[in-house]
Amino acid sequence: MKTLYLMRHGQTQYNVEGRIQGWCDSPLTEEGRDRASQVKAYLRDKGLRDWAYLASSDLKRAQDTLSLAQEPRGDFHQLSGLREACFGQYEKQSRDNLPREDFNRQIKAAGGETIPEVQERLIRTCSYIMDQIEDGEKAFAVAHGRCIRLFADYWQAKEGRPKVGEIANCSLLVFNYDGQAFTLEEILVP
């Protein structure tokens, strides 16, 4: 069995302002930086340090979070497949502006990604990460709230389990991977 620790990035300025980020970037707030640093201590206290693979989205907020949450050890992999869902023309706007009905059609028309597109991208990327490590090893990756939730909900539905709901900044979702499917084992909120 292989294990993936999938972390949401730290709080950003757009999170505070209630704005949609998607593929645009917003800097981490001081609280976001502090919480990411606390994750490093939490992982160290739990003996979670020997990662076979470290990755983040190629967006700066995820890269900065990974740099703060992990012991320095050189380069990590920046994977565009771990990016947040693209919201097209809705990016930088208030979350209140997102379509409430017929979401997939409206978001696609605005140049964004549908829910199945985001799920397929994350499944492909996380499977790739797991293919890079051996049985018994662990990988650590930093991504984004909506894409992590959609990824988790996909696997939860496969097992007849409830959706995970909102994911707090700097939360860690722990998945086991058997070579075919991911199983959500726990959600850690350091």
TrEMBL record:
GO molecular function: phosphatase activity
Residue sites binding substrate per the record: 8-15, 61
A single Gene Ontology CC term: cytoplasm
Highest rank taxon of the organism: Bacteria
Alphabetized SMART domains for the sequence: PGAM (SM00855)
Matching Pfam families: His_Phos_1
Protein name: Histidine phosphatase family protein
Biological source species: Aerococcus sanguinicola
